[in-house]
């Protein structure tokens, strides 16, 4: 090649603006450390804030003491210890798990349908979970004790998943367009079913609780509810990291991915099932919290690029930090009343979505 | 590596897109596929890189049916340069070329020094090393095309399948791209629009017409005024270029009466 001879001659004459200078990004390690620090700060704030404000130092003292008694001397009242360990911490951890999980799912889903506007809440699964949850609330079902609601919500999510996949398949293949369309259609129908159940419910309190659940929230979290989604999110994120190269290939387009050795149809089906099951697990405990899975991947791509090997760990950290922070706002803005955290994420996410749309159109 | 198509037929919706096409690219040979729009060039190539299974017939790589191989195993030996491009995801040029290493990697396996060297030299070979950190989506069409060829190079293939690789390229880069394919010494099957390019760079050309093989052989034997009149419905004069010694095709404007 005679690179020197023709230099950087532009191949297309009709290119209006010169190429932007190569982006200088913060080193990846530093970005990751920063996001981790952000998550820790959000978690600390989440545990400190509430009807009784507990100083951050004391929060850490209590947590460290619980991990190992030698790590901190107890200078606090047992009541405060209970507040931190049994009331606030499970909620904060669940917020982190849900935020990380939705963000990771959003990123995988956007690669899956090769559309940066995909959101986990758009694929029908969350609406299925909603129907399951609303059924339990409006008909006072209690087949599994305190777990009735999450179990029923998860069952609803799985049923929706089966429905969406069955509708999207045609001749053993699942095209992106059919996947999106059947997801949206299923979501609409199930949403209507849930709304019908709420509207026709004769108990206004149950209807109110169902509505709150639909908006998403982390109130009433207990350790019992945390561990299963936490395990699912950690395992799911690890699995996605394992296939992060294949996720990259999906961005190249179906044919190019096939030419680089990816069994596109099988991979897509497996990925969709994994993501849907993960979203189902999350929605079952938190309700349908929107926009997190849409926004976080975009922010992370701006920070560390679109390569999933780098972006997935970053998006998990950022998502966790964001939802924990949003939950602090949900609890404190009109304290002692609480706003469903889904309202906060929508208030932040809606404008972000519009900004994104206008930026892409430019 | 020899790539052989054996009676390949592709049908869709009762229509044959490709019908009974047989051709062979011997080791190190550059074979051009030419033909008018809709002649089945891309469809035929798709059956080579496992994007479209032939309705009947086989595609053999050194005697092995590519449709019975594992996708990854094939991708280590055969790379494709396609028209389709990534969109809207802010991948850098380096990220795009690095995808070419995927067939060599297992889950959780990162790029090692050897991979980075392959990627870097592929970038350099296509004259895009200085764009490595730029977002792929903001490149010009020609730059994108070169990056996609670099990605195919990063697969370290023995056979390359290229679907109109010179689209969007200016003259200099057209020559460079095709010259590079020749220089690599890989077996190559290239769909081309420009008959003069095909005549200059291909050892043999295969002419597709309505999904069927209309002719195949050396450019000198195949590219005749009769064939062009038949397949492209144009009048052309063909002589031997005084400098290069390759056939020169001059399409004549239609005589208006």
From TrEMBL, chain B:
One of its GO terms (molecular function) is ATP binding. SMART domains: AAA. Pfam families: ABC_tran. The keyword S-adenosyl-L-methionine does not apply. Residues 3-235 form the ABC transporter domain. Keywords: ATP-binding, Nucleotide-binding. CDD domains: ABC_Iron-Siderophores_B12_Hemin (cd03214). The keyword ATP-binding applies. Gene3D superfamilies: P-loop containing nucleotide triphosphate hydrolases. PANTHER family: ABC TRANSPORTER ATP-BINDING PROTEIN, HEMIN IMPORT ATP-BINDING PROTEIN HMUV. This is ABC transporter ATP-binding protein.
């Amino acid at each position: 090649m005679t690179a020197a001879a023709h230099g950087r001659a532009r191949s297309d004459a009709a290119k209006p603006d010169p190429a932007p200078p190569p982006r200088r990004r913060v080193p990846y390690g530093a970005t990751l450390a920063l996001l981790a620090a952000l998550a820790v700060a959000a978690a600390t704030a989440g545990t400190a804030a509430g009807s009784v404000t507990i100083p951050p130092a004391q929060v850490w003292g209590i947590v460290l003491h619980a991990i190992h008694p030698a790590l901190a001397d107890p200078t606090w009242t047992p009541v405060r210890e209970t507040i931190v360990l049994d009331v606030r911490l499970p909620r904060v951890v669940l917020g982190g798990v849900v935020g990380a999980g939705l963000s990771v799912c959003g990123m995988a889903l956007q690669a899956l349908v090769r559309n940066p506007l995909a959101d986990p809440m758009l694929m029908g699964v969350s609406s299925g979970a909603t129907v399951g949850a609303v059924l339990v609330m409006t008909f006072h079902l209690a087949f599994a004790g305190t777990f009735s609601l999450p179990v029923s919500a998860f069952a609803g999510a799985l049923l929706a998943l089966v429905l969406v996949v069955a509708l999207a398949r045609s001749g053993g293949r699942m095209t992106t367009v059919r996947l999106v369309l059947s997801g949206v259609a299923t979501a609409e129908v199930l949403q209507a079913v849930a709304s019908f159940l709420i509207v026709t419910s004769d108990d206004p309190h149950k209807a109110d609780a169902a509505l709150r659940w639909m908006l998403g929230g982390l109130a009433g979290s207990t350790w019992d509810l945390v561990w299963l989604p936490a395990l699912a999110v950690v395992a799911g994120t690890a699995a996605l990291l394992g296939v992060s190269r294949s996720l990259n290939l999906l961005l190249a387009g179906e044919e190019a991915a096939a030419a680089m050795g990816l069994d596109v149809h099988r991979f897509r089906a497996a990925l969709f099932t994994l993501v849907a099951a993960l979203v189902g697990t999350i929605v079952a405990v938190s309700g349908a919290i929107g926009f997190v899975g849409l926004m976080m991947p975009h922010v992370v791509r701006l920070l560390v690029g679109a390569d999933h090997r780098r972006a997935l760990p970053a998006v998990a950290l950022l998502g966790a930090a964001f939802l924990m922070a949003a939950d602090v706002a949900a609890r404190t803005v009109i304290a002692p009343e609480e706003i469903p955290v889904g309202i906060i994420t929508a208030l932040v996410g809606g404008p972000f979505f519009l900004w994104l749309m206008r930026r892409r159109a430019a | 590596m020899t790539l052989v198509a054996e009676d390949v037929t592709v049908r869709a919706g009762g229509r044959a897109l490709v019908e009974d096409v047989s051709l062979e690219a011997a080791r190190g040979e550059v074979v051009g596929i030419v033909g008018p729009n809709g002649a089945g060039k891309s469809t035929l190539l798709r059956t080579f890189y496992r994007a479209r299974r032939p309705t009947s017939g086989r595609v053999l790589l050194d005697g092995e049916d590519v449709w019975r191989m594992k996708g990854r195993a094939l991708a280590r030996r055969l790379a494709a340069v396609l028209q389709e491009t990534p969109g809207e995801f802010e991948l850098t040029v380096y990220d795009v070329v690095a995808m070419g290493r995927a067939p060599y990697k297992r889950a959780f396996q990162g790029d090692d020094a050897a991979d980075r060297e392959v990627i870097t030299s592929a970038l350099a070979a296509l004259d895009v090393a200085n764009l490595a950190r730029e977002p792929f989506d903001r490149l010009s069409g020609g730059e994108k095309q070169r990056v996609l060829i670099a990605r195919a190079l990063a697969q370290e293939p023995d056979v390359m399948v290229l679907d109109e690789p010179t689209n969007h390229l200016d003259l200099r880069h057209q020559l460079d791209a095709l010259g590079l394919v020749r220089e690599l010494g890989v077996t190559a099957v290239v769909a081309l629009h420009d008959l003069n390019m095909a005549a200059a760079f291909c050892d043999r050309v295969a002419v597709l017409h309505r999904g069927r093989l209309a002719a195949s052989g050396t450019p000198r034997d195949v590219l005749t005024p009769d064939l062009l009149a038949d397949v492209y419905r144009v009048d052309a004069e063909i002589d031997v270029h005084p400098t290069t010694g390759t056939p020169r095709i001059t399409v004549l404007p239609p005589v208006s009466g």
